[in-house]
Sequence to fold (65 residues):
Amino acid sequence: MGLENKQVIKGKIFSHLGNVDSPDILVLVADFFMRCHEVGWTVVSGVCQKNLVVIIRNDGFRKNA
Fold:
């Protein structure tokens, strides 16, 4: 689902996975996007137990968030 719903905008990937069983899935997807795409940022979100969880990753260079 994350692969189909991703949007790439100006070197950033955004994806919402909807309902997930564990926030760990969001971390794995965010890290996967960083490795497989030439982007500086990934933002992956999902809902786990009625809580919105957002994972933000960057390429390690100092950024203004």
In short: The CA atoms of residues 9 and 34 lie 14 Å apart. The two ends are 26 Å apart (CA to CA). The first strand starts at residue 7 and ends at 9.
